[in-house]
Amino acid sequence: MDFVSIRIITGDVARLVGFYERATGVGAVWATEDFAEFRTARATLAVASTRTVALFAPGSAGAADNRSVITEFLVDDVDRVYEDLTGAGAVDVDVVAGPATMPWGNRSLLVRDPDGNLVNFFAPVTAEAEARLAR
Description:
It is built from four helices and eight strands; from the N terminus they run E-H-E-E-E-H-E-H-E-E-E-H. The protein is of the alpha/beta class. It folds into two domains: 1-57, Signal recognition particle alu RNA binding heterodimer, srp9/1 (2-Layer Sandwich), CATH 3.30.720; 69-135, 2,3-Dihydroxybiphenyl 1,2-Dioxygenase, domain 1. The strands form two sheets. The chain has a four-stranded mixed beta sheet with strand order 1-4-3-2, with helices on one face. It has a four-stranded mixed beta sheet with strand order 5-8-7-6. A hairpin with a 2-residue loop joins strand 2 (29-32) and strand 3. The longest helix is centred in the first third of the chain and has 12 residues, at 13-24. The relative contact order is 0.18.
């Protein structure tokens, strides 16, 4: 088995896609106006409209209702991501925890996306943290 994707259900696909494009620097690949993906070498983040829920299991998922999952992105420079999200011309971003180095060796930035989902941007800054990410 290989973990390949996570999907976020939203009431505003364009708004959420815009946030993730700005935050990651990765352009979305749109399948329809209700579904877009951010494809990386390790996994895919899908963003789908609430209208898609009825296609696979009506009532099984709702928008802006997550309080338990943190979506994480490995980045080259956490501080640059912070500046990109909060600097000149930035939209209102809910920064939960600014850039900080964690005891386990990652530098991290924790924000909420426009739907309130937690997003962690991190980079290993110690040899031990880098070794954990080696594949």
